[in-house]
Design a protein that fits this description.
Length: 98
C-alpha cells in the first residue's frame, strides 16, 4: 500500500521515530503518538481503506483503530496547535503523492 507507506514515512521522519517502531508494538509515549497520528491520517486521507484493513496493517483490533481516531479528533478540538501540526503533515503527504 504505497500511500500508507508514504504516510508512515512522513510521520516517522517528522516525529523522528523509526518506521519499524511506528508499525511495531512499542508502548513508548512518542512512538505511540506517532502511530496514532499515522492511523488518523491514513483513515482521513484514504477513506476507502476500512478500519479493519488499517488494524491488520498495524497488528491491532478494529476497535483500537476506532478509539484512536476518536482520541485524535478530541485532541484536535482541545489543542488548536495540533490542528496546525496535522495540517503540515497533510501538506507533506499531498506534496509527496505527486
Amino acid at each position: 500500500m504505497k500511500n500508507v507507506d508514504l504516510i508512515i514515512d512522513i510521520v516517522s521522519d517528522t516525529m523522528n521515530v523509526a518506521r519499524m517502531h511506528v508499525t511495531g508494538k512499542s508502548r513508548q509515549k512518542n512512538i505511540v503518538y506517532a502511530r496514532h497520528l499515522c492511523i488518523y491520517l491514513i483513515a482521513e486521507t484514504m477513506p476507502k481503506l476500512t478500519d479493519e484493513k488499517i488494524a491488520v496493517y498495524f497488528g491491532m483490533k478494529k476497535a483500537a483503530v476506532c478509539k484512536i481516531k476518536d482520541k485524535i479528533k478530541f485532541q484536535i478540538m482541545i489543542y488548536p496547535t495540533m490542528r496546525g501540526g496535522l495540517g503540515l503533515l497533510r501538506k507533506k503527504i499531498f506534496e509527496n503523492e505527486k
